[in-house]
Batch of 2 targets.
Target 1
Amino acid sequence: MPDIENVLHNIDDNLNMAVSKLFELISIPSISNEPSREPDIAQAANWLLRELSSVGLVAEIIQTKGHPVVLAQSLSGLEEKQKRLLFYGHYDVQPIGDPEQWTYAPFKPELIEDGDIKRFYGRGASDSKSQLWTFIEALRAWKSVNGEFPAEITVVLEGEEECGSPSLPEFIQQHREDLACDVAFICDAEMWSPTQPAITTQLKGLFHERVMISAPNPDLHSGHYGAVAANPIRILSAILAGIHDDRGRVKIKGFYDDVRDIPDALRKQWHELSRYSGLFDGVELSGGVIEEGYSALEAMWGRPTVDINGITGGNQGPGERSVLPGTATARLSFRLVSGQEPEKVRASFRRYVESLIPDGCSVVFEGISGSSPVVLSQDSAFLRASAQGLEAEWGQPAVLIGTGGAIPLVQQFSEVLGADCIVIGFILSTDAIHAPDENYDMERLRKGARSWVRIFKEIQQMQ
Ligand SMILES: [Zn+2]
């Protein structure tokens, strides 16, 4: 049996080094959707290539049509029955937004004492550089104590997750053989609370739409024509206001056609989660409208939603401008559940909008692709092994959760590779992900790395 106590000690003893390495990675502004950051993306990929090589993996950088993928594998040549575990993470980050809103520098992380917690701030601190660092650190510690990896290992680190993973489907197809594995761990997900681990087994689908409504005329003087000419903002607002009824139901015809009911057993499982506190900590829900007949968790994880993400048009300036705008634009996101497909729901939405455009006005839609919802099996030996490993580390059972979020590659991995996918991460919704002052803490980094060691042990003991 492998010596796991020594591996766990090794992680504890190496924690300061692990943190300073992670700080090097966070210091690289690898923002994937700002073209000027391409050299930083390349620098982050090269940095990871070096680190994965120093852990003992054979690493390479694979160019794609977009940003490169870092692919690393163990080539131990151990017995064939050895399992192959794949780890996925992403090294790209979101833009920082308004720098004025950051209390801490986004790319100069340092440890800040916050009571008992040692926290660090930076873009990517939580999403997702610390996440990928948990499994790299676990692999390093295991190899240095035991002389070999716990199984055959593949690591895939993507550089375009934050801009929708456009190159990933082609990468997965082209590298099917390199990626073949028994189980793929997708490490980019939330815990239930700071002390309670979770495994995500249900993910929503997602697509976006941009809708622009134009009047027959460009901007007009609202005094001259306000009483008579069409106002696209007024038309758009009425359309958007008509999407929901006052019970929180979506009124778009056909929207719920393919939606599968939440199975009773799952409703019960989620209901039992209400005994664990934590999920809504730090978020005020008053003023929200939960769809009638569903609990908050059921609405978040098991019911489709439409969200209006932004509206623009007309006078946005600091002063008054009495204008009848020529156009009005809205952006929306649609979160889908089991049974729904993005293109079909998109078509119903477009028909709904078109039916409400007055004569003389016109509408242009923009929006392509999207991801389908994913429901992962809860009856997987790898899932049970992972749950046991997590519980051993955190001292609390790993809860099986859903998410309103989408991770499109989960579907691609399970379809193309035919592997079990296990979605585990050590993020919290209070980490200010995608927001100013994104942060993470040293203890979760330590326990995250230790969790993987315990999971490796459980997997080695699987029959
Ligand atoms: Zn993200």
Target 2
Amino acid sequence: MKNRDVLISGAGIAGPALAYWLSGHGFTTTVVERAPAPRAGGQTVDLRGAGRTVIERMGLMDRVREVSVSQRGIAFVGADGRIAARMPTELFGGEGIVSEVEVLRGDLGQVLYEATVPATEYLFDDTVRGLEQDDEGVTVTFEKARPRRVGLVIGADGLNSAVRGLAFGPHAQYVRPLGCYTAWFTVPAELDLGGWFLMHNAPGGLVASIRPGRVPGEVKAGLSFRSTPIDYDPRDTTSQMDILAARFSGAGWEVPRLLKAMRTAPDFFFDPIARFASTAGPAAGSRWLATPATARRRLPAWAPAWPWSAPTCWPVSWPPPAATTARRSAGTSGCCARTWPAARSRPTAA
Ligand SMILES: Cc1cc2nc3c(=O)[nH]c(=O)nc-3n(C[C@H](O)[C@H](O)[C@H](O)COP(=O)(O)OP(=O)(O)OC[C@H]3O[C@@H](n4cnc5c(N)ncnc54)[C@H](O)[C@@H]3O)c2cc1C
């Protein structure tokens, strides 16, 4: 790749993390983010497994621990608020539902943002509007900034990725709702949680949660519900709140208060729980990995047939990774990654 300028869309978790590693390997990175600043919001992220290893290799573990949330575990409550069962953090060797190191998504994003600011340019309050790719790179047009020429564009802009939409087509082809919708938002701490993540399961596939926040006086509330796919505008939070209000109407415990506080929450977030195939359909020179059979089995019965497999692809000149348990699916040889020269050797982890 002659042009080593890389444009990343999305300053969430993946965008800044990728910018960090690319900047450290000789690329010039720019991140464009639709929001006017790094977005707060979301519940906690469990730092375990690969995520923890990456944070450690970035030298950010101490900083992450500084902003991690102190929790005693998860407790299940009835409609009357009485606790029915508890699962302390120490259960399962600290690897249970609530793990040893949990950091709020917004705090993790902020840590990653701060770690990348010195070597990465951020364009806030803007978005990619057009991509024109040729053999040498991509010409990118923006909503506000002047057009740029880069070697590579990466979409790290979430479930409704603008980059994926521009490069590969409508979201419906890629996003596979898994039968559940969830919302998270910050509310005033009116209930003493005692350090516990409280969860109330109500009839009809409804789940309401309140979990400790990091800042005194505020906690994080979650409302999730089971559903077949529903139409909603991803940018219209009022209509999303209306959907939640209708679904949770009549639910007990703290739900009425949460529904009220939701309307003025500063960081309301709503999305389906979904999987997606992150790359386009077959193109010459690359191949797909198949989804492990278990993934298909986990899909609800009403889910449409899944035409693609795991969002993993590489040029045919590369051997399949030895460690994978995935099968190659019939009819899915080929991939999107036209920008990788065929003779290029496979990149190795730093
Ligand atoms: C505010 C918020 C709260 C969330 N809360 C939870 C949660 O509690 N639990 C959970 O499981 N998942 C949650 N998610 C989903 C989230 O996708 C994952 O948890 C995780 O953060 C994935 O990281 P990511 O970097 O891939 O995407 P995200 O964290 O979703 O980041 C994507 C970024 O891209 C930006 N963006 C979107 N569209 C455009 C565009 N057109 N142009 C430029 N930038 C764009 C977004 O503003 C966002 O900053 C949340 C996402 C957001 C944005």
